[in-house]
Amino acid sequence: MPQILMPALSPTMEEGKLSKWLVKVGDTVKSGDVLAEIETDKATMEVESVDEGVVKELLIAEGTEGVLVNTPIALVLAEGETAEAAPVAKTAPEPSEAPVVAAEKAAEAAPSQAAVPAAPKFEAQSDPDLPEGVEMVEMTVRQALNEAMAEELRRDKDVFVMGEEVAEYQGAYKITQNLLQEFGPQRIIDTPITEHGFAGLAVGAAFAGLKPIVEFMTWNFAMQAIDQIINSAAKQLYMSGGQVKAPMVFRGPNGAAARVGAQHSQDYSAWYSHVPGLTVIAPYSAADAKGLLKAAIRSPNPVVFLENEILYGSTGLVPKVDDFVLPIGKARIARKGADVTIVSFSMGMRYATQATEKLVAAGVDVELIDLRTLRPMDSDTVIASVKKTGRLVTVEEGWPQGGIGSELSARVMEQAFDYLDAPVMRVTGKDVPMPYAANLEKLALPNVDEVIAAVNAVTYRS
Amino acid sequence: MARKAVATKAKTQSNVPQFTTDQDREAYREMLLIRRFEEKAGQMYGMGLIGGFCHLYIGQEAVVTGITMASEKGKDAQITGYRDHGHMLVMGLDPKGVMAELTGRQGGLSRGKGGSMHMFSNEHKFYGGNGIVGAQVSLGTGLAFAAKYKGDGSVSLAYFGDGAANQGQVYESFNMAKLWNLPVVFIIENNKYAMGTSIERAAATTDFSMRGASFDIPGEQVDGMDVRMVYDAAKRAIEHARSGKGPFILEMLTYRYRGHSMSDPAKYRSKDEVTKYRQERDPIEQVRARLLESGAESEESLKDIENDIRAVVTAAADFATNDPEPDASELWTDITISA
Question: Is A195 a catalytic residue?
Answer without folding.
Answer: yes
